[in-house]
Amino acid sequence: MVGSGLPGAPPPKPIPLKERSSIVFVERGQLDVIDGAFVLVDANGVRTVIPVGGLAVIMLEPGTRASHAAIALAARAGTLLVWVGEAGVRLYSTGQPGGARSDRLLWQCRLAMDEEARLKVVRRMFDLRFGEPAPQRRSVDQLRGIEGARVRAIYKGLAGQFGVSWKNRRYDPGDFDHADVPNRCLSAATSCLYGITEAAVLAAGYAPAIGFLHTGKPLSFVYDIADIYKFETVVPVAFKVAADHQKGRLSMTPDRAVRIACRDAFRRSNILAKLIPGIEDVLRAGEIAPPEEPDYAVGPAFADPGHDGDEGHR
Questions:
Q1: Complete edge-to-edge strand list for the sheet that includes strand 64-66
Q2: Beta-strand relationship, 80-84 and 55-60
Q3: pLDDT of 253-311, one tens digit each?
Q4: Are 196 and 23 in contact (CB under 8 A)?
Q5: Domains along the chain?
Q6: Full-prediction pTM beyond 0.90?
């Protein structure tokens, strides 16, 4: 049991993000705290206990309601709640405890506002994503164009590898069902990755909106970091599920099959242990030292009693 909703109960002991399971989707039920446990109650009154403190993200699909006690317990346990659309593709809102750490946030802002530092960060992202240094003497906009061409080539190559009929990456965020099956699978897969990446960004004390390659969107930095890991985790999963659907091998809808496969892929790759160190690796490439925190500054939402490399807890 994680925590208790009883008055006077001690707060739950936080579990480092890297030691948690990645993601759970819930739908058509009431999230509540009953007998001290975080549960989902369906229309028939059946209770499903959810180990909230051992999860990085809970995705709330349409038909889900959440009580005040459930939201409070998720906050104390440091689990990110994400309100999503049908099939988990559209992200409407998130609820997270603690807020950004000022030292990390100021460092991120300084790097993003310094054009030279920003370019260095983007080059490091390119290196990590494609396994080779970015071409010399290219601007951020030029690197964005090169990245787009390479991504299109990778999509085409994976489609051929799995035998999937593929035209291009095309979808309408407002109409999930309008896209073809491969594009729906990719949208569902990347949504899962964005959820756990946002949890890591917030856990480490950064702002999801302050990106380097991506800009101008609420999750720009989430997209920056998630794209580094996209092709080693969720994109092959999406094409495999699309291929299984094309061959009539699925016993469930493609989006549900993708979510289950992504969950398993996250567990195998232990991606939660990579995300926060990966964020710091990318930002340190900007070669601007993070500012010192004043003595009176508020620390992370959950203090780490021992140094294990996982800086900050949500």
A1: 47-49, 37-41, 29-34, 64-66
A2: parallel
A3: 998 999 899 989 998 888 988 998 999 999 999 999 987 777 766 655 544 444 444 44
A4: yes
A5: 17-95 (3.100.10.20), 102-284 (1.20.120.920)
A6: no
